[in-house]
Amino acid sequence: MNPFEMVAVIVVAVMIGSVLRARYGYHRRGGAPAGVSPEERAETLRLREEVKQLKERITVLERITIEKENSLAKEIESLRDR
Questions:
Q1: DSSP string across 20-36
Q2: Which site in 32, 56, 69, 72 is 20 to 30 Å from 41, CA atoms measured?
Q3: pLDDT, tens digit, 9 for 90 and up, residues 28-37
Q4: pLDDT confidence bin for 75, thresholds 50/70/90
């Protein structure tokens, strides 16, 4: 395959990729596709906020669990020392 054919194959592959990306609504820059309604955007923002709150709650629960495990281990060790 000579260099010109290789360039042509690459150009065709990029064009096909661009058409497929446009067809299925994939946007690389993080922007919403043109067909997304304001209600869907608001729902997306609400869900993201909810996920953020749930992650914070999980972090607190993990910290509480670890603290209890540590205190339980200390109690067990103090009973062994008796």
A1: HHHHHT--TTSPPPTT-
A2: 56
A3: 665 555 667 8
A4: confident
- The structure tokens 């042509």 sit at 8
Q: List Cα–Cα distances, 62 to 39, 47, 70, 80, in angstroms.
A: 34, 22, 12, 27
Q: How many residues does the chain have?
A: 82
Query: Is residue 35 a contact partner of residue 25, using CB atoms and an 8 Å limit?
Result: yes
- CB contact at 8 A, 29 and 20: no
Distance CA 17, CA 39 (A): 30
- How far apart are the C-alpha atoms of 53 and 59, rounded to whole Å? 10
42 SS3 class: helix
| Residue with the two structure tokens 């150009």 | 11
